[in-house]
């Protein structure tokens, strides 16, 4: 479980269109893409700065692939619906040099992709399948964006319903007291570990709340892509940094996003 008491870096909608918006509009003319809800063209940070074009392209790379392939089949596991290798390329994000992930070395099951997904949950809901080590962001028309994740090891897993109470880009990590007690070597970070590629929270963090209270669980990035598909965390849901950036951009900060964590 990770706890970060820094203020979240919230974003809002509205404002002029960025270059990413124009690129996005070229894609949305394709009928098969109408169920892919990506609002890069409207997203601006609270500072008033347009969203960085490289951030937008991480998500748009998947959209572009769909447009090129046509993707009119219903085979959710089709390789034509996977994010391309370029979606995991090295990128400078908020001044941080994010390294490339050798995604071809990751099981295709855990690679970001559009899949058929039957659920009673509304579009915009996040569903974590702990047993399968998969996270789904529910779209319209029986589809979802699926990501591979790492989950809590035995004794640290949890399940239930929560919501995203706040968000942060490149958050500071504060190891909780219980973790420091188990791992005394973390004592030097009791005052916080600065953001960076070795920070356990990675590039983004989505903070899970229940009834107005912080659960201390997060959905977050992480510097170790080989942990995806494994049970290694202290209860949080960890993702490849490029994937958490993509998911973070999809989550509407102006709405209460429901998160369902299924039993493992």
From TrEMBL:
<dbReference type="InterPro" id="IPR050979">
    <property type="entry name" value="LD-transpeptidase"/>
</dbReference>
<dbReference type="GO" id="GO:0071555">
    <property type="term" value="P:cell wall organization"/>
</dbReference>
<dbReference type="Pfam" id="PF03734">
    <property type="entry name" value="YkuD"/>
</dbReference>
<feature type="domain" description="L,D-TPase catalytic">
    <location>
        <begin position="124"/>
        <end position="262"/>
    </location>
</feature>
<comment type="similarity">
    <text>Belongs to the YkuD family.</text>
</comment>
<keyword id="KW-0133">Cell shape</keyword>
<dbReference type="GO" id="GO:0005576">
    <property type="term" value="C:extracellular region"/>
</dbReference>
<dbReference type="GO" id="GO:0016757">
    <property type="term" value="F:glycosyltransferase activity"/>
</dbReference>
<keyword id="KW-0378">Hydrolase</keyword>
<keyword id="KW-0961">Cell wall biogenesis/degradation</keyword>
<keyword id="KW-0449">Lipoprotein</keyword>
<protein>
    <submittedName>
        <fullName>Lipoprotein-anchoring transpeptidase ErfK/SrfK</fullName>
    </submittedName>
</protein>
<keyword id="KW-0328">Glycosyltransferase</keyword>
<dbReference type="InterPro" id="IPR038063">
    <property type="entry name" value="Transpep_catalytic_dom"/>
</dbReference>
<dbReference type="InterPro" id="IPR005490">
    <property type="entry name" value="LD_TPept_cat_dom"/>
</dbReference>
<feature type="active site" description="Proton donor/acceptor">
    <location>
        <position position="220"/>
    </location>
</feature>
<dbReference type="GO" id="GO:0008360">
    <property type="term" value="P:regulation of cell shape"/>
</dbReference>
<dbReference type="GO" id="GO:0071972">
    <property type="term" value="F:peptidoglycan L,D-transpeptidase activity"/>
</dbReference>
<comment type="pathway">
    <text>Cell wall biogenesis; peptidoglycan biosynthesis.</text>
</comment>
<dbReference type="GO" id="GO:0018104">
    <property type="term" value="P:peptidoglycan-protein cross-linking"/>
</dbReference>
<keyword id="KW-0573">Peptidoglycan synthesis</keyword>
<feature type="active site" description="Nucleophile">
    <location>
        <position position="236"/>
    </location>
</feature>
<keyword id="KW-0808">Transferase</keyword>
